[in-house]
Amino acid sequence: MRAAVIESVGRAVVTExxxxxxxxxxxxxEVAACGLCGTDLHILQGxxxxxxxxxxxxxxxxxxxxxxTRVTEVTAGDRVAVDPSLYCHExxxxxxxxxxxxxxxxxxxxxxxxxxxxxxxAPVANCVGLPEHxxxxxxxxxxxxxxxxxxxxxxxxxxxxxxxxxxxxxxxxMMLELAKRTGxxxxxxxxxxxxxxxxxxxxxxxxxxxxxxxxxxxxGWDVVxxxxxxxxxxxxxxxRVAKAGTFLQFGVADYATRVTIDxxxxxxxxxxxxxxxxxxxxxxxxxxxxxNGVLDPRVFISDRLPLERYPQALEQFAAGVGRKIVVVP
Length: 329
Ligand SMILES: [Zn+2]
Ligand SMILES: [Zn+2]
What we know:
This protein is of the alpha/beta class. The chain contains 9 helices and 17 strands. The chain is about 25% helix and about 30% strand.
């Protein structure tokens, strides 16, 4: 089959690899579309994946074409979105409900072969069936949405909060949409890229600006979400949290990124600084949000490129052009 392969640090190609074979409790999915995200760039830079080469792609959906000997839940022809999370279910973190912090954390497309390929293998337990009106190729967006749902689980956002989101790429826009649906009084969005702000406005941002200084909230925001991973944005955002407010580190920063905090203010104003990592018991719920039309996956997709152009898709994503880019085998 054809597959994108990150061969070594900085080098991605599309090449021929062996067809995947399902284990007893696994299925083979013919991939309809696979999304790219910051994690793929981190893998390209040599972070996250314990060993290269790897077939990337942790955001994908498709049609089941083969099932393992002990699979009864799905059959060939079923359309599914695939939760990439692979937990051990045995370590201290798994056993205390923090599976996404698993000591043996692994994920399809991060540590094992992923969905940027014609076919991908996945445990049947990771497959979520799709209703008729959700197109398979749009369901690649369930995974990023499930990360955003996890973000709101961490926030336990209260009704009437004023929310500020840094970044209006796919993740920032999803955080904006979910803020509105969890009862925020206002949701402001900051992004250096004016083209991206336009989408934030279309999706109902209260205000969208190139910098938080342009927004009028001198007391700060109850909830500040970084969806950029960028040091300057994070540093700025930490200073914008209102008294008793919460800062959520949602974007993935480089390992070496450092920012400063103001411990007196954290103490004196009871500020919470927290983070949310990937997916935790949130994949099904993200699929429900699309299935029930609460969110429309199509608004987040700006480009659909053929799989053969995976390296160019990575470059385009790295350049910050567009929103969600998916490759189509
Ligand atoms: Zn991702
Ligand atoms: Zn574990």
